[in-house]
Amino acid sequence: MVKVNKNRINVLNQTEPDIESGEYVLYWVLMYRRTRYNHALQRAIEWANELGKPLLVFEPLQLEYEWASDRFQQFIIESMKDSYEAFSKSKAGYFPFVETIEGELNGLLESLVSKASVVISDDYPAYFIPQMAAKGEGIVTCKYEIVDSNGLMPIRSAEKEFVRAHDFRRNMHKNIVGHLESPPEENPLSKLKMSFNEDVIKATLKKWEPTNFTNINIPELVSELPVDKSVKASNITGGYKAAKERMDNFLETSFNDYSERRSHPSEDVGSGLSPYFHFGNLSSYEVFKKIVEMEGWSKDKTNEKKVGNRREWWGMSENAEGFLDQLITWREVGFHTCVYKSNYDQYESLPEWALETLEEHSKDEREHIYSFEELENSKTHDEIWNAAQKQLKEEGIIQNYLRMLWGKKILEWTEHPKTALNYMIQLNNKYALDGRDPNSYSGIFWTLGRYDRAWGPERPIFGKIRYMTSDSTAKKFNLSGYLEKWS
Description:
Elements: E1 9-11, E2 24-28, H1 39-51, E3 55-61, H2 70-88, E4 93-98, H3 108-113, E5 116-122, H4 129-137, E6 143-147, H5 165-179, H6 199-202, H7 218-223, H8 240-254, H9 258-261, H10 274-278, H11 284-295, H12 318-340, H13 352-360, H14 372-376, H15 383-395, H16 400-412, H17 417-431, H18 438-446, H19 470-476, H20 480-486
Parallel strand pairs: 2-3, 2-5, 3-4, 5-6
Antiparallel strand pairs: 1-6
């Protein structure tokens, strides 16, 4: 069993493992809702085997968090059901708990921690997860570590923030081969030595019963939860099984057209994997490994003369090079930003040149100004934008190219760039299945200049910010299929 790279382990206290009174190693799941290619689960199993203890996996789903809705609760519960099935076939104990009444979870983590030798959790740098992990520091008295299983590059491996995607790409090209030498285990549960005895916790947890996933009716359960009912569950199913099916389908059917067709709104050529990455159902390493196998790639095929280039460094096909740039560069640069910039979700975090040009043009006359409610309900004059917003509201995603246009038009149609940013964050985090994620913050802030450069000619409202229009989009693509579906 390959040990987890130390660059992925963040030790939150220097306490030694509680070998004498601790009865198990506890893995507290916050984000990585999968049993495959999971560095955090792997680290928990390392500790369990080293200490000769069983493993207990605790996965809670609370009610009280910002933007909690039927959409997100259902996706997460579907993910938990897949985990339940996987853990039931292993030696690990699994304690899933879906909160149905506010406050039901109070005290449960403390009770589980009190019997633990070591506690492992997920190192995820955005949303309220860092605060949750930090909360554990006041509760956990034994060894406590959080482990990064977000991407191919450890999020704490760099010494600085990358202000441009090109800079991150150069760093990645120079270092990723070394990080690939310690990949996550495909099925770490198979390496677990000791079986968990449920009697160990029954006496301790008289107040709580784990959620029974044996014959669960998920839509019925979700319908009774006191969360936002205006955001309906998506037709996109959560969980590892759905994620793998989507991955396999993409690689078998759309991948060969990816480079040429990925931006076309009327064609389903995108991977569609971002919700599964966000909710931790799928490891980007598993996708990377599949592509490596398809391409027959080995590290000796890299081209050192192309360090920092979007293409030709990997020595793979054009489709693979293009997809890997999205999967690694553009996805992971946002994680590094969240680690090194605590105000990653604030207007003031934009580059100085972007702040300067946006402020210079903040009082420019706008032909159209829309309220948040008008935008939310697709009440603009722009048919293309309305369709994109409708897709977001109903399905929880926006086609990749139109997502960029969506943000650019909000900048154009609001009174101030700060207002535009607030509207984008609220709409994205309320409706998008991959919202509240470092990658989605990257996309939103990119529309205002993050990871980009100054562009000319300077324009009203946008200043030197990259410009996009619905008219040019309509000329560039055949939108008939997309508009027919979402208008």
